[in-house]
Amino acid sequence: MKIQKKLFHQLIVGFISTISLMTMPARTVNATTANIAYQATNGCTINLTGSGSVWAGDNFTISGQAGPLSDGRYALIVNFQAPFVFFNSKVSLNGQLQPSASGTIVSGGSAMVFASAQVPSTVMNGPVQISFQIANSSGVQCSGSYTLYVKSCNAKAGKYDGNLLAASKEGNNCFIANIPTSIQSKVWIWNKGFYISPDLQCPSFTTSDTANCLFKQVPSTGFIQNNKFYVKRKFANWSWRCPQGIWDSTGCLVETAPFGTTAFAYNGNWYTTPISKNCNQYFSAGIAKFDGANCYIMTVPVGATPLISNAKYYYIP
Asked: Do residues 81 and 183 share a domain?
């Protein structure tokens, strides 16, 4: 690939002692991660150091060293590609070449490469590919690429009613909303969403434990048959001597699980499944709705992780 003379007039080639970021109203992110080496077919390597990740709206700089290079004058070409993140015309680049010594690069020398940019505040989360090329009049001599992950709070959370909730950056997370005081101790996270356990309608002889309906501790001779709770009679031939319950030819019947529920024993206790589950109080309060198993509040954007902290809904981008 031939490099036009116009390109060389636009780029500064020579020794510079400092590289300054563009003047933009945004936070600056400096290079912090270890170098990443990329080997071109001609033996030239670009070692790039970058921040690893950057927030939408921030300035950032990626730098590196390219070499070995043959004699001559060189230009730096930097391309930003965003397969999953949209970068529009607001992205601006300031690539400069800094040889290891003033003047032209002698054979076997190296050059420092820098690229500064601002991430538009409107972009979504995702990786951005950045490619570097060092070229002279004979074409590209050295190339490399760098993956920068952009973090953003622009994606919205999806509420149970189909509406979307915007988020805003708070620290290193995306704040969605405050959790109402009445449910702060009840909200939990599953998969990518926030939930509340439903209210259970339990048989009159049981109490709700938020998951099932607790009857009582299993008696020493207790057993379950045909969805009924039994104990064994005290004497084999005396049906009227039931320590509790009423004899029904199977055993001493203590209670019968209502139609539509299931009697079971767990961890030393007798239970039934609930007659029904509902989220009526949460739905009427505009908080959640029943999804067939639990009270669904909202789901965070694709690729994000839900977080509860300080009585607030967040997602981690």
From this structure: no
